[in-house]
Design a protein that fits this description.
Helix 2 (58-79) packs across helix 3. It is globular and about 40 Å long. The protein has a five-stranded antiparallel β-sheet. It contains three helices and five strands. The protein has a domain at 23-111: HIT family, subunit A (2-Layer Sandwich), CATH 3.30.428. With 139 residues, it is of the alpha+beta class. Bound molecules: adenosine monophosphate. Adenosine monophosphate binds at residues 8, 19, 33-35, 43, 89, 95-98, 117-118.
Length: 139
């Protein structure tokens, strides 16, 4: 499948769609997942238009994991979760639903603590407040 420049994350990168922004640099952007699987669920994307790991440049991959690490540390600090899961899905068969590569940073508390994937929209005021807290915790 060819990269679709009108996917929702491409629109967020171009400022054509809103997001609860947590972090941005010249290569990457991080924002709150609006249908979080746990409180603090954050997404990290490259600004480069790549659908999945298979068409992402090595430079984009390096920047993406560097930002993901930064965000994981901040999310753990803010949510005080004992564990943090990273997830990155490539292709419909793997469960990918937005075709612009992204890492999920999901706080975990143990056991079956996750909501279903991309199902229930969170309260936007809560997401806004969390984004500000995570952003402030980035080192
Ligand atoms: P994946 O299935 O790995 O492609 O994950 C896509 C994720 O994007 C899901 O967790 C959705 O909840 C999330 N999502 C979809 N649209 C938006 C949006 N406009 N802003 C933030 N997160 C979104």
């Amino acid at each position: 499948m060819a990269y679709d420049p009108n996917n929702i994350f491409a629109k967020i990168v171009r400022g054509e769609a809103p997001c609860f922004k947590v972090y941005e640099d010249d290569r990457t952007l991080a924002f709150m997942d609006i249908m979080p699987q746990a409180e603090g669920h954050t997404l990290i994307i490259p600004k480069e238009g790549a659908e999945s790991i298979f068409d992402l440049s090595p430079e984009g991959a390096a920047a993406l994991i560097k930002t993901t690490k930064k965000i994981a540390v901040a999310v753990k600090e803010v949510t005080k979760a004992p564990g943090v899961m990273l997830a990155q899905l490539n292709g419909t068969a793997a469960g990918q639903t937005v075709f612009h590569i992204h890492f999920h940073v999901i706080p975990r508390t143990g056991g079956i603590d996750l909501k279903l994937h991309a199902r229930e929209q969170a309260d936007f005021e809560k997401l806004k407040a969390l984004a500000a807290k995570i952003s402030a915790a980035i080192k």
